[in-house]
Amino acid sequence: LDQLEPDSSAYNISWTVRLKGELEVPALQQALNALVQRHEVLRSCFPTVAGQAELHLRDDVIVPLEKSELQGATDERLRAHLSRLAAQPFELATPPLIRVFLVQRTATEHVLLVLIHHIVSAGASMRILFRELAQLYDAAVAGNLAAGLSRLSPLDIQYPDFSLWQREWLSGEQLQQQLDYWTNKLAGAPPVLALPTDRPRSAALRFRGASVIRLLPKELAEDLRALGRRNGATLFMVMFAVFDILLQRYTAQNDLVVGTPISGRSRTALEGLIGFFVNTAVLRTQLSDDMSFRDLLRRVRDTALEAHTHQELPFEKLVEVLQPERELSHTPIFQVMFDLQEEPRWQLPLQNIEVIPEVIFSSRTSTFDLTLSVREAS
Description:
Blueprint: E1 12-21, H1 25-38, E2 44-45, E3 48-49, E4 52-53, E5 56-57, E6 65-69, H2 75-86, E7 98-106, E8 109-117, H3 123-141, H4 145-151, H5 159-169, H6 173-185, H7 218-230, H8 235-251, E9 255-262, E10 279-286, H9 293-309, H10 315-322, E11 336-341, E12 353-357, E13 370-375
Parallel strand pairs: 6-7, 11-13
Antiparallel strand pairs: 1-8, 1-12, 2-5, 3-4, 7-8, 9-10
């Protein structure tokens, strides 16, 4: 994808937190250095050798805290500044594929922006990154970084070990079982979900986008969960069924194909690793005019459970096998994504620092025609 669209920031992941208190910047840099040494994937790059991308690991990678000052700046100026930083593309052949920015607003208020390319990370990895960075920072402030490292769970494997396992798995018998399921499930599916647009689709993906955030009342969330419990379904299944109805109304299509991310951490040894483990499952829902919502919910539940059972097949392998007609104007197999994360808002206790995870600016890119992301906030 990077070769198809070079110098793109479409697959940049950015997370921001506000830090209030007396921040010890040298300790934060020490913690960051230790984190990069702990996780090989943060020292990786992907040069092209003889026409093929290869994973190379480097021991000499340093990720400096890139500091800037915006004393007295308005929130609008801060958002613009962070947005510019987050839009900087990565060169995948040149490490590191992570950048960390520290913006000082006052003597006791900073904004920390972590920017990382999707090829080495995903959402769950970012939570691991911030959690370990916080623990290492506290240890560095106490003057005992080595003790902080020893308290972290040991990493029995690294990302290249997972990569090797996956490559071996893809040559085994289970691969064919998973391929049989997915090829049968997606046989005859429509290649494009025809969302109505205000202009013709461009000849090639440009990844230009925007985001809109809406808050739903807590009472509504509880009602949705209760609806799921009455029908043996999770909140994901309920929200996905509702999204299917919305898409059917806008497209007038009864055969809907939507992608959804799956964490890909099906083994205990992977739980503490930073890396790109996430896979994409394709959920196909066929609706009928006489279908009730409960009927639809049961169908979505069955489809989601089946997809979870067959989640090991990498989406890229599925595309390779199905060989859909490829167009630069849209993504293959599906063009709409649904994502729900029910994890409670994560906390990062720091020594004498109040940490406030916060979406300070909105991304101006989009990798799909439409993505609905649902998050639980406390």
